[in-house]
């Protein structure tokens, strides 16, 4: 039932260096491999212990699906899976991932605080326009990285289905990574019922970012991620939660049925507004592909003239990815 849907509860614990250290120390792999010069390198994702049996069964399946996808995916903006333990689908199964420092939601709140300070300027005298420009470019760059990740997934016929800032984070190099693939699905010809339309479960994802066709349990395809990206991008630029005062009833009535969308700031560039409007179009066929979104953002004037162009950033991320693979191989040979 859509009206009972809750998108704010996680079924997983993510163990890092700052809690449950005894459990971390008890894992042989974690003890030997997950710390470099005393700093944690990885995080462990496993099921929470307080779940009821039905929820635990569903969450275990989601975690097994996530492990399956991450074992085959390789992209600079997708979280890297370093290992697994246990039997997939079992309540004790867990996966080991690269540790991220901060989620995009947390970063969005930090950006908002920085913007408030920049608007008052030093000593409250005038706006810090250089900082405001930097913050805008940082948000667009984060969106660009996420678009690159989704472009890669869609090229492999994978629909992500849960795009939101909570599922993206920054690593130690400040690169954006998409994580949490428990709701991802590979689209196959067997399930196709039309052009970019497949038989798939409805009410899948997080309500605020969910495409109308998913809420209404209609066939859907890759374009549902594009809709989510539109809401996601608006959140990064506005630096506030979309539909924050909407309960499920209001969201269903105004957003899903009547096509209401978040309000855009008057001063946002027209090319940004056009991208948002095309992404969250009610008609799935009117939405752009991520290949198109990637090119649009790449060619935004702010990013073409920034200190590091998007082409240079892409090359840098690819170089880092190759270096990481080389380092992994080197460490595996030494163990």
Automatic annotation (TrEMBL):
Instruction: List, alphabetically, the SUPFAM superfamilies matched.
Output: Protein kinase-like (PK-like) (SSF56112)
**What sequence ranges are listed for the domain Protein kinase?**
1-303
Pfam family of the protein (one): Pkinase
> Which InterPro entries does the UniProt record give?
Kinase-like_dom_sf, Prot_kinase_dom, Ser_Thr_protein_kinase
Q: Which superkingdom is the protein from?
A: Eukaryota
From the UniProt record, give one GO term of the biological process aspect. Answer: signal transduction
Q: Which GO terms describe its cellular component?
A: cytoplasm
Query: Where would one find the signal peptide in this protein?
Result: none
Enumerate the GO terms in the molecular function aspect.
ATP binding; protein kinase activity
Name this polypeptide is given: Protein kinase domain-containing protein
What organism does the record attribute this protein to? Minutocellus polymorphus
| Organism taxonomic ancestry | Eukaryota, Sar, Stramenopiles, Ochrophyta, Bacillariophyta
